[in-house]
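Quick question, first post here. What does this chain look like in 3D?
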Amino acid sequence: MLAFGAPSLAASAAPNEPERAELLRRAQAGDVSVYDLLAGSYLNAEGGKRDVEAAVRWLNAGVKAGDTNCMIALGNLYFEGVDLDHDATKALSLYKAAAAKGDALGAYNAGLVYETSADDLTQAIGWYWRAATGGDEGGMYKLALAYQLGQGLPADEAQAVTWMRKAAEAGSVDAINDLGSYYLQGYGVPVDEARALMLYVDAAKQGSAVALANVAAAYHNGEGVEVDQEKALRLFALSARAGNLTAYYDLGQMYEDGEGVKASRAKAAQLYRMAAESPDEDVAEMAGDAVERLESGSSETPIA
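> Answer (accepted):
Ran it through. Tokens below.
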């Protein structure tokens, strides 16, 4: 199955009281365009000012008025199953309604529901196509992955590169990072380590913890840049702290081998244990094996 992420509400800062009061005034005056913003203000409010019931009431009003932003936001609440009971069927219906009105994000989220809840990759790809041709970067990225992995579509390097470029140009940080990997590995394009590093840096600056680890690996391996183990160590640590648990495995190897830091089997084992919590099953397994290897007294570090 393709790698995926669940539909989610945009995390916007909760407005202060005067701003919320203005949104409420406009909504009560019939300005449908602010219904989703007002709902978001209730959902993002802190403490006792958070009001899910009011948020859902305004989102439902927006749905009845035909506002696609409200359709998607309410669909997200049903899909996430936190503030409302999880209901993929209701979420899908709302996403499809938004897509029917030309909202590409609605089509993308419909694809996610088919992929993750219905396990219907054929339907998912159809909705991703619709999202991609409507300009949604997520849909473009999904098509690139489908062609790359040969899942839901025939494997096709040229098409994968085409859609990955489109997604990157549309602003997908994941696509920028993955396009860097295409250039590093020579997948559908000539090998170009310098360009790969440039793309990794671009994605890392936009908040990708995975891309930050790829920049670290470039310094570790001397790919497009001079080898700098100390810098690689710092960057892997930053990536790990940013939530990329896989980077803990790389750190573990560097501490075990004494690359850019004094060797420490105890520290390496600690880092491997943290990497063992990675959602990447392969990494988690390698990290668990590394812990067992160190605890058994072996000093042979496997090549990642």
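The mean pLDDT is 93.
The longest helix spans residues 281-296.
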